[in-house]
Amino acid sequence: MTYSLAVDIGGTFTDIVLRDSKGGLSVDKTLTTHHDLLEGFFRGVDSVLAKAGVEAGAVDGVVVHATTVVTNALIERKGLPTALVVTEGFRDVLSIRNEHRYDMYDPQIEFPEPLVTRELTFGIKERVLADGTIALAPDPADITRLAAEIRASGARALAICFLNSFANPANEAQVAAALARELNDVFICTSSEVAPQIREYQRASTATVNAYAMPISQPYLKSLSERLRVEGFANTPLIMLSSGGVVGAETAGKNPVRMIESGPAAGALAACHYAELLGIDRLMSFDMGGTTAKACLIENRTPLVTGLFEVDRRYRFKEGSGLPVTVPSIDLIEIGAGGGSIAHVDDLGLLKVGPESAGSNPGPACYGKGGTSATVTDADLVLGLIDAENFLGGDMSLDKPACDSAMARLGEALDISAVQAARGIYRIVTEAMASAARTHATDRGVDYRGLPLFAFGGAGPLHACGVADLLQSTSVIVPPQSSVLSAFGTLVTPIRLDLVRSDLTQIGRLDWTRVDRVLGDLEAEGRAALGESGCAPGDVTVLVGADMRYVGQQHEVTVIFETDPRQSRDVGVLSAQFEAAYRTLYGVNPSHVPIEIVTWRVVARGPSPHFDGQARPQIAPGKPKRHRPVHAWQDGQSVPVYDRAALATGQTIAGPAIIEERETTTALPPGWSATIDALGCIVATKG
């Protein structure tokens, strides 16, 4: 029997999935230990191994990990002093940003403080022209003086970002190599390695984020690998990336900026896996955990991918208020609406929910760990949607008196009852998630109406039917082990690395020799990284795409080509695919305007892991194990409670009803019904 292990560390819970070669799953869920992430990691691993009755040495398959270690470092600003080396005259690049105001009418506009202060930003004489010509190479004497200044500054990490280095990285490479010899205890990265793309500020921001995280991520991943070895696990870990692939720990440690959205990306890939199994081409994944809720559009059983996202936003919903990162990532919308989202009364006396979260410590009031604020989880408990004695299968009892007290204080502030306040929280957070999903789809030219909603996460199945109702979804699908589905997603994703490089040129003037060189270098880099992760050369496939636009435009549209353009060298095919993608987004094509390629993209990926779900035993239709009063839809409504494990394939349940499992609960409102399909999914429909 072969076993594979997946661990996803989230903002509130750490999820663990152990899969055997016959498709059997053993799962567990434990609170995230933010003071030492590996403590919660191995606590959960030990628990799931004990449940399965196997030793660590029996886990001879992959060990895949998704983590928030980089995100936490950026938000909490607990990293080591980081320096930045730029072309002389550009020391203010991080402060000036791109001069874009995300809210032009706000005189009190706020941006996050740069990760690198001006005092730790150093300039050096060098210049690369836009076409890649080296106009001025760095003077070795200047590099020596620079090394002394950096050493005196106390910086422990260093990013190097020179003007136009995306076109020719030679100057960056020269300075990085020389400084590495002089500063052998400093973590160093260059923008041409991390994000070789146009737009100086975004590239500098990405490089500094990467450098800032390196002193945290590399020791963390090294400690993880060593601990796994000592515990007796057969293989070194694979790390989930934001783009939806996994790579070896060494490659991930050098590029921690690629790990920021690793957990949410894994959830989206699990949704794609089930889209294949269920034969559904289009759906919307809905992942609601303890801290945030995420939505992702799945088109043709594939998630949308973006080349730019932000971290550490001052305002969660305002694009431009954070630190831009130009690395490929699954295109998600994330909002502060999780089980731990705190409810409060604003200055106008209105009830608001989030985006602040109680996290895992102290957590919601009902966790009994000192939290006093009413949260979404507290509201669910007051409404009777979850059972205080059956949370995590009874392993974690909830403090109902503390919950009632917190909700009563909130109700008093609103001059309503505690139950009314809880019902308000439930409705507000449901509307907030639906609104975010609408915006996400509309901005991408996708009609969200009628899309099935694929719900998972610890709190997702509780709120999914309400969100689906507002989105006019045809159905809600809750898969087996839905609470730990992001961890499961890391086991069904192939080894993959997305690479980019800017090379601005009009399609009509393409130099195919240059294209061959750029794409060839990217392909070689991707194949080497996959080889380090254990992927055989013959198993690697390569996809080619590009960021394209009409000449004169500021923003690009990403297109993944159906075939490698190096084979046909037909610019007409490139134009046609771009125009089709552009029309989908904007509904029109300015056909008289020339088209240009801004950035080339290469995706190197290995084979998709084979996974067959475990066959469901034939059992008699399950009956309610009890009834309990639920106040979510009307006061004191007696609602049947089912054990999900006791439900038979083909069994239909009419709402209102509650379906419980150890790690999560599914709520069926009045007017809804659910059927258990052949894969064990709960498929709920209205009417």
Structure, described:
With 687 residues, this protein is of the alpha+beta class. The chain folds into 4 domains: 1-61, no CATH class; 78-216, 3-Layer(aba) Sandwich (Rossmann fold); 261-490, Nucleotidyltransferase, domain 5; 496-605, Dna Ligase, domain 1. The protein is built from 17 helices and 35 strands. Strands 13, 14, 15, 20, 23, 24, 31, 34 and 35 form a 9-stranded mixed beta sheet that branches. Strands 3-2-1-4-11-12 form a 6-stranded mixed beta sheet, sandwiched between helices. A 4-stranded parallel beta sheet has the order 6-5-9-10, sandwiched between helices. Strand 14 and strand 15 (302-303) form a beta hairpin. Helix 10 packs across helix 12 (418-443) and helix 11 (400-414) packs across helix 12 (418-443). The longest helix is centred in the first third of the chain and has 32 residues, at 200-231. The protein is globular, with a radius of gyration of 26 Å. The relative contact order is 0.10. The mean pLDDT is 88.
Key traits:
9-stranded mixed sheet; Rossmann fold; 687 residues; 4 domains; alpha+beta; Nucleotidyltransferase, domain 5; 17 helices
Write a brief caption for the model.
It contains 17 helices and 35 strands. Residues 515-678 form the Acetophenone carboxylase-like C-terminal domain.
